[in-house]
Design goal:
The structure is a homodimer of 239-residue chains.
Chain A (H helix, E strand, L loop, with lengths): L3 E5 L12 E5 L4 H10 L4 E5 L2 H11 L2 E4 L27 E5 L3 H9 L4 E4 L4 H8 L4 E6 L10 H17 L4 E2 L1 H8 L3 H5 L3 H8 L3 H7 L7 E8 L3 E8 L1
Parallel strand pairs in A: 1-7, 1-8, 2-6, 2-7, 3-5, 4-5
Antiparallel strand pairs in A: 3-10, 9-10
Helix pairs in contact in A: 4-5, 8-9
């Protein structure tokens, strides 16, 4: 049962804190997209560290290729990184390789250190239930610029998970990142108040923000079940 | 005049964002102590990166030696890092070498990259006036564990500065760290709600928390005026 909880505002550059489980959040948009891909019936999401690696593993496995660089899908990708568009692609029963500039990197880094899953506002309650089975847990905000710049929307989505965990376990020992998350007066609105949200609106991708704000609408957690060279495979766990 | 503002939730591990001025915050307790040392008449504060370096520069300059390791003053130091005790030491006209495990390190790192000053809740309005003269400014939270772990009290004190800057310039372009700071409902209370505040109370140093919460009581800014090998010299600027 969970007893210690923190939120890492960025993936650590060097030393990661020891934890029994990591939930990685890249609310705009990678982990929201991963959750929706599995919700729409994809068999697995393979999160890749590099664009070249994503292309190679997709070809090798006959998987669909999804992702973005600078907000938009690179040439030859089957789809972008837009959660609002997931429902319009035929993903049921398929593996989908996902490459993005922050979220998939953070997922690979966390999975190298322990049990890891993808989380966002959509599966906040489910992610909280998955985390609640472990002793020490860390929610990892993916950030921007390859995980070097803080992204408000990630903390805001993490705050939805923290609230669910604290509601179930009020005596939880909280690190300062988790204490901060609890102080956010309106996490769902904060997802749309970030610089990244401004940038998506400027790209005409404002629907992705609304899609990322649909708190507690999905009851599954994409959990890392296999690690490859430069990628991790996530499969849906009902929690 | 200031046009871009961000708060860095930790000192960057690698690439620092370009800025025309950095204000470093280590609210519990280094920058609060530095502000109070100058407020009580110390001629300058010399912030040292290492304990050995602090001892050497203090001996060389005939300066007082202040600081902490694990919250308490090392053997042979003239005083600790306690803002509540600054008034009981004869610091007027003296140079004081300050070594702490996070704040002085962050000050040295920031000063290596551009104009830098020490800030906290006490001099929030003064620090905002000093920053307001520059174009792009960054407030740097010193954090814990040599700047690798987020400290809520630093963001809370930074929030006092952000509020003062935004009140004067509502059209300021804000990074996500600054947007987050503005969302804190009660920054002064948040200074006392951190894990570090809990640890100080456990050490019997609870008065330092109240001392760090005395927002806008000091109208000077400790500004870096000289860089040595492993130290920076801060002198009071009325702003």
């Amino acid at each position: 049962m969970v007893s210690e909880l923190d939120v890492l505002l960025l993936p650590p550059a060097h030393q990661w804190p020891a934890a029994d489980a990591y939930a990685v959040v890249d609310a705009l948009r990678a982990t929201t997209t991963a959750v929706l891909l599995l919700h729409h019936g994809a068999r697995a999401v393979i999160a890749a560290e590099s664009e070249a690696g994503a292309r190679a593993v997709a070809q090798e496995r006959g998987a669909l290729l999804a992702g973005e660089v600078g907000g938009l899908p690179p040439p030859g990708f089957d789809m972008g990184n837009s959660p609002a568009e997931v429902g319009s692609h035929a993903v049921a029963g398929r593996e989908v390789v996902l490459f993005t500039t922050n979220g998939t990197l953070a997922l690979c880094a966390a999975a190298a250190r322990g049990p890891a899953a993808a989380a966002c506002a959509l599966n906040a309650a489910a992610a909280a239930r998955w985390l609640a089975e472990r002793h020490r847990v860390a929610i990892v905000c993916a950030g921007e610029e390859h995980g070097t710049v803080f992204a408000l929307e990630d903390l805001a989505a993490a705050a939805c998970i923290v609230r669910a965990l604290v509601a179930a376990r009020p005596d939880l020992e909280l690190g300062d990142g988790a204490r901060l998350a609890l102080m956010l007066p309106d996490p769902v609105t904060a997802i749309g108040a970030s610089a990244h949200a401004d940038a998506l609106r400027a790209l005409g991708l404002g629907e992705d923000i609304a899609a990322a704000q649909a708190v507690d609408t999905v009851q599954l957690v994409p959990v890392v079940t296999a690690l490859g060279a430069g990628w991790v495979r996530l499969e849906p766990v009902r929690a």
